[in-house]
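User: tokens in, sequence out, please.
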């Protein structure tokens, strides 16, 4: 699938480069091509006043009415960005009457919702521990699913997320699907105790819970009944 972004002005390209491309993604605005789904491979063509570049990318989100968020290799765009920075900006003098105004920044239009979401997705995928923690407080639960896909996420964060009742169910099932996490007794226990974890999944995870925790689960009256019964059965043997 080929996606194309054309920048009529250097400033537009540099703004997207700073805010999105340098962080590993870009929102391709407009209607998404029919049949395009998350995870699909795409070719992204960036056309600017100083040249063009074709990149390989992957769809990370299709945003209805806003566009398609795709991954971008910042290094593949670095030469184009340098050329854009070196080029005299024809519109700079024309815009000088307003850019010098102290109110110019506050008067600038807010970025479209889709662009904000795309930036948060990139931050979730590549941000640090503090940024991940902040994004987990986002009311948009879709963002949580990208946080657990961050390559830098640590086990203690996974345990904490597995305990959370504010995250979407698919986040909990994703954690359980990762063998290196689900096999850890502390992760399995957190998921078993989480009331949002689907009951069949929680019962399967009892296999990973330590014997001492299993005995505690068998006694906990606030635990969902089916899970408690399964824990008792395992304790009895």
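Assistant: Sequence out:
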């Amino acid at each position: 699938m080929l996606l194309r972004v054309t920048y009529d002005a250097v400033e537009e390209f540099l703004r997207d480069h700073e805010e999105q491309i340098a962080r590993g993604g870009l929102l391709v605005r407009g209607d998404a091509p029919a049949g395009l789904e998350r995870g699909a491979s795409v070719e992204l063509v960036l056309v600017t006043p100083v040249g063009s570049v074709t990149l390989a990318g992957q769809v990370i989100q299709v945003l209805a009415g806003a566009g398609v968020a795709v991954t971008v290799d910042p290094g593949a765009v670095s030469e184009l960005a340098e050329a854009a920075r070196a080029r005299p900006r024809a519109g700079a003098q024309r815009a000088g009457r307003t850019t010098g105004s102290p109110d110019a920044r506050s008067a600038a239009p807010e970025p479209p919702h889709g662009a904000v979401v795309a930036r948060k997705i990139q931050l979730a995928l590549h941000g640090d521990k503090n940024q991940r923690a902040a994004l987990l407080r986002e009311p948009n639960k879709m963002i949580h699913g990208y946080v657990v896909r961050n390559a830098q996420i640590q086990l203690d964060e996974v345990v904490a997320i597995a305990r959370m009742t504010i995250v979407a169910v698919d986040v909990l099932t994703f954690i359980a699907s990762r063998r290196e996490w689900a096999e850890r007794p502390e992760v399995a226990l957190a998921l078993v105790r989480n009331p949002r974890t689907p009951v069949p999944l929680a019962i399967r995870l009892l296999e990973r819970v330590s014997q001492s925790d299993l005995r505690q689960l068998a006694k906990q009256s606030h635990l969902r009944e089916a899970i408690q019964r399964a824990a008792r059965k395992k304790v009895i043997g």
